[in-house]
Design brief:
Blueprint lengths: L8 H18 L15 H16 L18 H11 L5 H4 L6 H11 L2 H12 L5 E4 L15 E5 L2 E12 L6 E7 L10 E7 L5 E7 L9 E12 L3 E2 L5 H37 L11 H31 L6 H26 L1 H4 L5 H11 L6 H13 L15 H25 L1
Parallel strand pairs: 1-4
Antiparallel strand pairs: 2-3, 3-7, 4-5, 5-8, 6-7
Helix pairs in contact: 1-3, 3-7, 3-8, 5-6, 5-7, 7-8, 7-9, 8-9, 9-11, 9-12
Length: 434
């Protein structure tokens, strides 16, 4: 029986190198006013490319991909431990070749793409020569694909796409979008949609505006309109009607990575609130001397450690079963728990920092908004809680008597007496004979 909480020494060396590398060389990039996804910016490339090469030299580039695509093929546990380090450092995912949404888009092209699609789109995407966007969510339908109305109709040897998409992350930087559209409105609900690779410069693709989050003025969450957009028939990704299954495959591992990066962000917040608590002077000592502050520090530590262990256990289960459907309940559970843990730790960090905490000189308000985004992105928390409950309740059945169920004390006493009273009688008879 294997049951261990240690990392093998060889991989731990890699993690230790990552911690130092991210802290010393990668984190400062986030302070320079350049965007990690702006691959056409010469200054960005001059700074990022050498760091990416260092990562490649260490054999840590795009580790989620198999060796045939230039990665290490690491399982979810190793990827989770890596993402814990990458969380909270803006440029870290780009420097390590595992940035969303490019990672998920690369995975589905690798699994479902044709040789021509892989050559044209996957290879430059993996090299970070281009970036991509996942154009799924719609203004009227939210993240529920069964309510989508964007249509793709076969017109000769082209698909013609019409509709609107909302929050297509990094659309402003993207060279191509992966678009989810209805191809057969009469089919079963989860078979109505297909996925398409759509180059951004295709006539009819219009980025209406780029929406900001975290208080950004110039955001990169693109509101995209598709008007008679024609793409060749061979730009269909996977099978017609297979979009829902493809998207679920794409999102499963991504949710675990989001969770471990959230662990990394929360660890940074706990570190900063702790440093503030022991250094901020009061009339009688430091902020850390107050019991209420100690309670906030303790709650943050406990919640973070619980969440981290839950995420790693889920990652371990994915590695064990190699089947996301078997781990669906736990993936949904960590996705539902993630925004609450993140929100509560960020809120405490703000409170302990006082006026400085709510100012634009600290990142904490951005963390607070990020926690709320995590409760919406990749499916809202409420949907994931419903999934957890439905999956959990499948293991239970009706009781014979709903008024007085078999686990009531009266039934349990009767069952115990039925089991042990005959034994008592037998023992009394033996004693009588003796």
């Amino acid at each position: 029986m294997a049951w261990d909480f240690e990392t093998d020494p060889e991989f731990q060396e890699k993690l230790d190198w990552m911690k130092d590398f991210v802290r010393e060389k990668v984190e400062p990039l986030g302070m320079l006013g350049i965007h990690p996804y702006d691959v056409k910016n010469p200054r960005r490339n001059a700074l990022v490319r050498p760091l990416q090469q260092e990562v490649k030299d260490k054999g840590l580039w795009a580790c989620h991909l198999g060796p045939e695509l230039g990665g290490q093929g690491y399982g979810q546990v190793k990827l989770g431990l890596m993402n814990e380090i990458l969380g909270g450092a803006t440029f870290a995912p780009i420097v390590f070749g595992c940035q969303a949404p490019d990672t998920g888009n690369a995975e589905i092209i690798a699994h479902y793409g044709t040789p021509e699609q892989k050559e044209r789109y996957l290879e430059p995407l993996l090299a970070n020569e281009i970036v991509s966007a996942f154009s799924m969510t719609e203004p009227q339908g939210g993240s529920d694909p069964t309510n989508f109305v964007t249509r793709a109709e076969l017109d000769g040897n082209h698909w013609k796409i019409n509709g609107e998409k909302w929050f297509s992350t990094n659309g402003k930087w993207a060279d191509f979008l992966i678009v989810m559209a209805v191809t057969d409105p009469e089919a079963q609900r989860h078979k109505r949609m297909s996925m398409f690779i759509v180059p951004v410069d295709t006539p009819g693709v219009e980025i209406v505006r780029n929406v900001g989050v975290y208080g950004q003025e110039n955001g990169s969450e693109s509101y995209v309109r598709y008007t008679d957009v024609r793409v060749p028939a061979d730009h269909l990704l996977g099978e017609q009607g297979g979009a829902f299954a493809i998207s679920q495959t794409r999102l499963g591992g991504g949710r675990v990575h989001h969770a471990m990066r959230t662990v990394g962000s929360c660890k940074r917040l706990l570190d900063m609130m702790s440093r503030r608590a022991v250094s901020r002077k009061t009339r009688t000592g430091t902020v850390a001397d107050y019991q209420t502050v100690k309670m906030q520090i303790a709650d943050s530590y406990i919640e973070l450690e619980q969440f981290k262990l839950f995420v790693l256990k889920t990652a371990w289960m994915i590695d064990k079963y190699q089947d996301y459907l078997k781990v669906r309940k736990d993936i949904a559970a960590i996705k539902a728990l993630m925004p609450k843990v993140y929100h509560d730790i960020a809120a405490r960090c703000i409170h302990i920092h006082g006026s400085l905490g709510v100012s634009n000189e600290m990142p904490f308000v951005g963390n607070l908004i990020a926690s709320m985004v995590m409760g919406i992105a990749d499916g809202p928390t409420e949907v994931h809680k419903v999934t957890v409950a439905k999956q959990h309740l499948r293991d239970y059945k009706d009781v014979d008597d709903p008024m007085f169920p078999d686990y009531s004390l009266i039934h349990r006493r009767e069952a115990a007496r039925a089991m042990y009273d005959p034994m008592d009688e037998l023992q009394e008879a033996v004693e009588a004979v003796e």
